[in-house]
Amino acid sequence: MLLTFFEISISQSNIDTVTFNRSGDWLAFGSSKFGQLLVWEWASESYVLKQQGHFDSLNSVTYSPDAHRIVSCADDGKIKLWDTQSGFCIATFTEHSGAVTACEYATRGNVLFTASLDGSLRAWDLIRYRNFRTFTAPSRLSFTSIAVDPSGEVVCAGSSDSFDVYTWSVQTGQFLDQLAGHEGPIASLAFAASGEFLVSGSWDHTIRIWNVFGRTQTSEPLQLQADITDVAIRPDSKQIAVSTLDGQITFWSVSEATQEAGMDGRRDISGGRKLGERRTAANSSETKAFRCIVYSADGSCIFAGGESKYICLYDVRSGNLVQKITLSINLSLEGTQEYLNSRGLTEAGPAALLDDDDDDAAADGEPRNSLILPGATRGDMSKRHTRPEIR
């Protein structure tokens, strides 16, 4: 006769694997749906280890200044702090009620700033692991970009709902100013390493250089040919790199306010298609633009990536492609296949996107949660996620 002497609730999803350690003191449970790893000590009835990844799309990842930690934020509204040596998550922040779109460390590395679609920016103390400051705009906005002054005194944010740049004092938490001038939503912000100026890029095909600490906040726009997707400033604060929606990367002199060079990266970044697309990877327009660019530490090279399975490394001086890195060749991920497979198409759409397990799950008494419906999770309520994808 078997008796139940202990019962614990581990996860809302199915447990895929269970194992004991050699001494029999610890039980390890694994759940693949939410990426959970749990270690339970049955004698003390306590957790030894709890690990869980994001269960929604990642929006931003950044290293700490000492490179010992990585911060990730995602559409699930969570911010996770990871140790680079052990690979474990050492802290999770859940105060945001919407998707977290951007994160940035302060120069000293003990403070983290995040922006969210819930209309707030938050400052986190990474020594005590707590939220010590919350910033909000005069009107409700969904923030999509963030920049922190190197001195840590001012934080700026941009929104897809407004054409202005908003600034706050970190010390007092008070709203300082609203920088007006752009005629389209703000796509990207970046402070110079010297702290002398702020650069903003917008969907109005312009970038602007602001003197945040000056008496006047006017700035002359630098005109480009397409919507701005990201801006980056060289470590010596003398050059600005701008990526646009037409796949171009242009380089501008800060002192002369003129374009110094440019390169066309559409052929380099193009690659990978999603199941719902009717075109091959070579003809898909979604992957032919860089969404994120960053300078190397010495400013001689620039990394560029987008909604593609490739990351490109360019030499700034010559404009040549130095290396093309493939993120993954796992064909089960969205955005890794090159060609259209007509055998996988049905009258209802791609066969791989159809949910065939709902009837079986309902018969077993389990909830039908394999297809996430709008409004079921925090983040962008209009998105449906059925498969992990390359971003």
Question: What does this 3D model show about the protein?
Answer:
By secondary structure, this protein is mainly β. Helix content is 3%, strand content 41%. The protein contains two helices and 30 strands. The chain has helices spanning 266-269, 358-363; strands at 17-20, 26-31, 36-41, 46-52, 58-63, 69-74, 79-83, 89-93, 100-105, 111-116, 120-125, 130-136, 143-148, 154-159, 165-169, 175-179, 186-191, 198-202, 206-210, 222-223, 228-233, 239-244, 248-253, 259-264, 292-295, 301-305, 310-315, 321-326, 345-346, 349-350. The chain has a four-stranded antiparallel β-sheet, with no helix packed on it. The longest helix is centred in the last third of the chain and has 6 residues, at 358-363. The radius of gyration is 23 Å and the shape is globular. The model is unreliable at 358-384 (pLDDT under 50).
Q: In brief, what are we looking at here?
A:
The chain has 391 residues and is an all-beta fold. It has helices at 266-269, 358-363; strands at 17-20, 26-31, 36-41, 46-52, 58-63, 69-74, 79-83, 89-93, 100-105, 111-116, 120-125, 130-136, 143-148, 154-159, 165-169, 175-179, 186-191, 198-202, 206-210, 222-223, 228-233, 239-244, 248-253, 259-264, 292-295, 301-305, 310-315, 321-326, 345-346, 349-350.
